[in-house]
Fold this sequence. Notes:
This protein is mainly α. It is built from 4 helices and no strands. Helix 1 (4-43) packs across helix 2 (45-58) and helix 2 (45-58) packs antiparallel against helix 4 (69-80). The radius of gyration is 21 Å and the shape is elongated. The chain starts with a helix and ends with a helix. It comes from Paracoccus nototheniae. This is Conjugal transfer protein TraD.
Amino acid sequence: MKTLDQQIATAEQKLALLRSKKKATDTRVKIIVGAVVVKAALENPDAAAKLAGLLRDRVTRDLDVKDIQQLLASLDKKAAKNG
């Protein structure tokens, strides 16, 4: 029979695994939702303008801003077709 310390260690390992699985699921959901939103925005000038504005307002880290420049250019191009 396992000692209490061994049982605690086993339970902590299970908890860590469950937390890891939850984080992976949460990340996957964000990726799926993001892909759907971007695709929809690239198909609709109004949505493109709104998403570009939202990204410019909310994305503030220099590295992140750099990473989304190509997307912003595509959104701006689509939004320009609105006017």
